[in-house]
Amino acid sequence: MTPTLVRRHRPHPSSSSHTTDAHARTRDWAEIQERMLVPLYEAVYDRLDVGAGTRLLGLGCGSGLALLMAAARGAAVCGVDTDERRLDLARERLTAPGAPRGDAARPARLGPGGPENAWVREAAADAAFTVVTAFEPLSAPAAEDPGGAVSAAAAALADAAALTERGGAVVLAGWGPPERCATSGVLRVGARLADPMRSPGYRRWRPCGRDDLEELAARAGLRPDGSGRVACPFGYADMDSAVRGLLSTGLFDAAERATDPTQVRKEIIEALHPHQRADGTVWMPNVFRYLICRV
Fold first, then answer.
1. Which of 58, 61, 126, 130 has the fewest CB atoms within 10 Å, i.e. is most exposed?
2. Taking Cα atoms as reference points, which of 232, 238, 234, 239 lies closest to residue 265?
């Protein structure tokens, strides 16, 4: 499925106020950026036959779009994320009138943090998960691991696997080859501008290597059982929507701290110009990779 171009939902504040408005960034993620990975969600759900009888745990569930899609297929869903604002939006989506309920006997449950939380373990004690997803592109193994991000990701995956029934699936996702991801050039802008920021928790984008997901799975003690690639083009109605969507990922936060928001926005626009069409829309073909592991 190819995502539709995103239209503006509301007038946006000035660039200076927008960069300091975390709530606006969260809304931009939910309204603009999150849907870019819908083809990935659909491909994985189709391959694993997610539906009635599936008990799914979403790691880094964001504002809940992937969970909502799983619930629409009849799955019982739980989700965790470290971003409370995104979780609030996920709750809104999953409890809104007319929202799909999935397994009525097991209402959707959402909470902060990761699979180590007590409520996640309680949910698994009732019935072990059959599918665990980590759709947010994870940091893959690298010589540089500021703040131990890779080790933390492997630990979270291992914790989630321990709550999954034997034979259940744990899904990892990452960027495809840089030469097949037009957005790579734009994301490198953030990495370059943020270069001085080497403090713990610093989030630096880097392209995935051919075996990075497999190496991360090995660290988590998971057994690979197939993989796939999915086209996930990033399409935006105009330059402003593209900039807002990309900023909402958090991958430019360190760049804004290292330089200034105005400079970051200017350089993102420059990097996006080759991808702007004559009608003003912005279109960047990308390929994402997923790895299915078995517990």
1. 126
2. 239
Residues in Cβ contact with 216 at an 8 Å cutoff, skipping those fewer than 6 apart: 138, 140, 141, 150, 153, 154, 157, 172
Domain positions in the chain are 15-181+209-237+284-294
Q: How far apart, in whole angstroms, are the C-alpha atoms of residue 82 and residue 249?
A: 14
Helices (H), 56-183: 65-72, 84-95, 118-126, 149-162
49 burial level (CB within 10 Å; 0-12, 13-18, 19+): exposed
pLDDT digits (tens, 9 = 90+) for 4-40: 444 444 444 444 444 448 899 999 999 999 999 999 9
Nearest to 198 by CA among 267, 150, 247, 144: 144
DSSP state, 169?
E
Chain centroid to CA 17: 25
Both tokens assigned to 84? 């409370």
Q: What token pair was written down for 278?
A: 């004559």
What span, in angstroms and rounded, lies between the C-alpha atoms of 242 and 141? 29
Residue 128, φ and ψ in degrees, nearest 5 = -60, 150
pLDDT tens track for 207-236: 666 788 999 999 999 999 999 999 999 999
The CATH number of the structural domain formed by 15-181+209-237+284-294 is: 3.40.50.150
CA distance 70 to 64: 10
Nearest to 62 by CA among 264, 254, 250: 250
Q: Going by C-beta distance under 8 Å and a sequence separation of 6 or more, which residues neighbour residue 233?
A: 2, 3, 36, 283, 284, 285, 286
Distance CA 265, CA 62 (A): 23
